[in-house]
Amino acid sequence: MSGTPTVAALRTAADFTALGREMHALVSELYPICRSITGEGLRRTLRVLQRETPLTIQEVPSGTAVLDWTVPREWNIRDAWVANAKGERVIDFKRSNLHVVNYSVPVRRRMSLSELRPRLHSLPDRPDWIPYRTSYYQEDWGFCLAHRDLERLPEGEYEAVVDATLADGSLSYGEIFLPGETSDEVLFSAHACHPSLANDNLSGLALLTVLARMLAAASRRYSYRFLFVPGTIGSITWLARNEAAVSRIRHGLVAACVGDAGPVTYKKSRRGDAEVDRAAAHVLKQSGRPHSVVDFTPYGYDERQYGSPGFDLAVGSLTRTPHGRYPEYHTSADDLSFVRPDALADSLSAYLSVVAVLEGNGRYRNTSPRGEPQLGRRGLYGSMGGYPDPGQLQMAMLWVLNQSDGGPTLLDIADRSGIAFDTIRAGADLLVEHRLLDPSD
Ligand code: ZN
């Protein structure tokens, strides 16, 4: 693969300002589409991503048994509204797709405000925001609106209409596979089922799309798989249909909420001490970013499916502010101004750094382990022309030589020495070049 850049080199050369703007533009393009766990909105979203990447769209028929679940019927919505006696729309799906409870069954009914009232959802604490509500897996319908607008509705008769169909069809998900030198896989997954919500989770779709395009242009030790799935049912469907691929997954990350201004959060895999957990913690610590690393919990996004005990995959989740921890979460305030190009770019950079560690990590053996080999004679001491921090690189070589007895990995050595993985890797490359170091596996 000579001539093809490594992931680390691609990251160094990347114009993150431009990439941040590009990801934000993609979020903006997808924002108006009314997605759900099935249906045309989800499919249209995947087709947009297909324009940017070699994504294939898989369709799984309604009624298919997947693990303990069944693929649900396909939901397609054309319009929805609540109109007053004069026929004026007081709640209108065409103004915001959050106005209708997602997956609502079709309805056309006249009713008094008091009959309608239990079907109307609002946020008294945030009177200007429309909440996001769903009715998956139970036949129901309803509307969401700003509390201020709810309080202004006069008594009287209203017409409630959900012009939707709930019928046999299929569940769609998107998949990208990038083969590498080994069949061992790194999995990236994002949920693609939310309607007009920007951070949760259009930000994740945009980040993974750009990441996939970049990795497609890089040399790859690992094979990479990207999944764009409806939350829960999509990952369960994929797991049910891909037993062979599941057994090849070595590391993974679930992408969500990667565009807000908050600091980065890494949620560990169920295993807690997997290589991806250590790689993410190392990258965040070395970057100097404000960040937090939190333990696995069986809640959140699809990491809970990948990390269910029958699979126990080493899949963590790299987000900014976690789900439910920001007031805009699952409301109309999670909009295009809540997601920032610079935050998207910073998140992408963190993802690339984690991938660079996974790609570059390995175990080596010092070929001259009795006493320190004479580095000066080989031009490896003092005069590291062009390297930004020769002192650090020298220390990195000493650490790598000292620790490389076939036991510790380069990531172990980076953690133990407190030197950034990139520098440890660069030191190891020089030692390999001078035959002082051999791969041990
Ligand atoms: Zn959500």
Describe the structure.
The protein has three domains: 256 residues, 3-Layer(aba) Sandwich (Aminopeptidase), CATH 3.40.630; 93 residues, Domain of unknown function DUF2172 (Glucose Oxidase, domain 1), CATH 3.50.30.90; 77 residues, Winged helix-like DNA-binding domain superfamily/Winged helix DNA-binding domain (Arc Repressor Mutant, subunit A), CATH 1.10.10. 34% of the residues lie in helices and 23% in strands. An eight-stranded mixed β-sheet has the order 1-10-12-11-13-16-14-15, sandwiched between helices. Strand 4 and strand 5 form a beta hairpin. It starts with 6 loop residues before the first helix and ends with a strand. The relative contact order is 0.14. Zinc ion binds next to loops.
